[in-house]
Amino acid sequence: MASAGTDSQSRGRSPRVSVIIPVYNGAATISLVLQSVFDQTFADFEIVVVDDGSTDATASILEGVGSRIAIIRQPNQGFCAARNAAIAKSKAEYLALLDADDFWAATKLEKSIAILDKSPQVALVYTDVSNQDTAGRDLGTSPVDAKTAHSPTLDEMLSRLWPIMPSTVVMRRAAYEECGRFAEGFSEDLDFWIRIREQGEFSYLPEKLTRFTMGPLYPKVLRRDSRGELFVRSIRSRYGDRASGVLQSYTQHKIRILRNTGLAELRKGNRAGARKCLIRSLSYDRTAFKTYLRIARTLLPMSIIRALDRSRDSR
Known about the structure:
Layout: E1 3-4, H1 6-11, E2 17-23, H2 30-38, E3 45-52, H3 58-65, E4 70-74, H4 79-89, E5 94-97, E6 103-104, H5 108-118, E7 122-132, H6 154-157, E8 170-172, H7 173-179, H8 190-197, E9 201-213, H9 220-225, H10 228-239, H11 244-268, H12 271-282, H13 289-297, H14 302-313
Parallel strand pairs: 2-3, 2-5, 3-4, 7-9
Antiparallel strand pairs: 1-3, 5-8, 6-9, 7-8
């Protein structure tokens, strides 16, 4: 049984919101993440946590929380499968997503639920987000820019990648079920936002009510990229030429993140990792001459690479 929040327990009924938290090796952050839920001004919730095959101290930390949460344990299957498993065991009409290294402001649920309660045409509410590093320092950035700081139409979401971060989302269970759940086997949830947009309007709340942790991308970026073709195939088969914009945006995003990760790893001295990322980026754009030069640099001794960097920086 899922663990209910304070209000629902006192009233003897199902909670209004199910907080869905997948976690894999999240011992360093999961306690603080849960505390950000316990501190919510909206108290009528349950918390369902899926321990997705953790090998660190995550399991013992979750056990220490006691009956305030429900825990599901399963072999590692990825966050899409973990979210589906948690939602299947949950009970509320609204589903709030939260990753195991992100954090909510105290009014996150209260403000999101208010929109869903008064707007039956809205299938999903999401908020702005502030990026932070793994030490909790605010980076002063957000994936939302002036062009995307509004609630998107379906056509807009098919024209480019839309900056919806999972931990900012509260959605209706009915819309989640109607759109077919998260696609298991995918390494990303980008297709889900498009599919659920078919079920109703989105509402964008322009407040930074979620803190998103930007951790190391390597080697995670390579694992996720290995299944990127599933996203392309799914979107192309569902929407055809109508989705050409978002597929082009997706390709550009992949190139940028692989290149940037490769350069970051090279600066750290991880020449092999840098080479893997840069080579993978060529699968999206084989005409990128600079990328070939960067791959060649990864074959040089680090002393020469650093000397070249110093020479470039001094210009």
